[in-house]
Write a structure and sequence with these properties.
The complex is a heterodimer of chains A (about 110) and B (about 110). In chain A, about 0% of the residues lie in helices and about 60% in strands. Chain A is built from no helices and eleven strands. In chain A, strand 7 and strand 8 form a beta hairpin. Chain A is globular and about 40 Å long. In chain B, about 0% of the residues lie in helices and about 55% in strands. In chain B, strands 2, 4, 5, 6, 9, 10 and 11 form a seven-stranded mixed β-sheet that branches. In chain B, strand 5 and strand 6 form a beta hairpin. The chains are: A mainly beta (about 110), B mainly beta (about 110).
């Protein structure tokens, strides 16, 4: 089945800096890669997703890149703000299941 | 106007008890899910229903039994609760199967078994 690995497990950045979170997946048939943000005590919410026919997608300060050959995808957050502090999860489809990475705790220091 | 609502928000109970968590979505989605988030924040799927039909049943103990009376509702009943069942349980829905659409999560039910 699908295995998704996510790095780093924690990430501290200074406000205004960029943050990058990386994920690798094992199932070469995976074709959908969403990213979720979970603030403390709240539900996970989709922030961006990418499908396998696209190499990059951007939404304001957030971008995701996908390298199907290497089977990895990354989340890039530019000009980080304190409200970006949260746990971020990557995910990939394995068979008919969405498999999540273990999460990255992002702390943005002001 | 919550799209995916689950009750209760908190549930504290003793080992051996039976409890239920209810979930309803008003998004018109066809597929609903139960996820378990453990103390290390790991999100793992438990069950998935598409239009009332069970399509995913992960290696979850038989003590957990989902029920979907219609496509807008997916409830979770847990028998003989154990300490290890303590976690946050999230209900979610999507417009289609997982392969092509985002998940919309409920606010979670924090279950504490003492």
């Amino acid at each position: 089945g699908e295995n998704v690995e996510q790095h780093p497990s924690t990430l501290s950045v200074q406000e205004g800096d960029s943050a990058v979170i990386k994920c690798t997946y094992s199932d070469s048939a995976s074709n959908y890669f969403p990213w979720y943000k979970q603030e403390l005590g709240k539900r996970p919410q989709l922030i961006i997703d990418i499908r396998s026919n696209v190499g990059e997608k951007k939404d304001q300060r957030i971008a995701v890149t996908l390298n199907k050959t290497a089977k990895h995808f990354s989340l890039h957050i530019t000009e980080t703000q304190p409200e970006d502090s949260a746990v971020y999860f990557c995910a990939a489809i394995g068979g008919n299941k969405l498999v999540f990475g273990a999460g990255t705790i992002l702390r943005v220091k002001s | 106007d919550t799209a995916v609502s689950q009750t209760p928000k908190y549930l504290v109970t003793q080992m051996g008890n039976d409890k239920s968590i209810k979930c309803e979505q008003n998004l018109g989605h066809d597929t609903m899910y139960w996820y378990k988030q453990d103390s290390k924040k790991f999100l793992k799927i438990m069950f998935s229903y598409n239009n009332k039909e069970l399509i995913i049943n992960e290696t979850v103990p038989n003590r957990f039994s989902p029920k979907s009376p219609d496509k807008a509702h997916l409830n979770l009943h847990i028998n003989s609760l154990e300490l290890g069942d303590s976690a946050v349980y999230f209900c979610a829905s999507s417009i289609g199967g997982m392969s092509n659409s985002p998940l919309h999560f409920g606010n979670g039910t924090r279950l504490t078994v003492t």
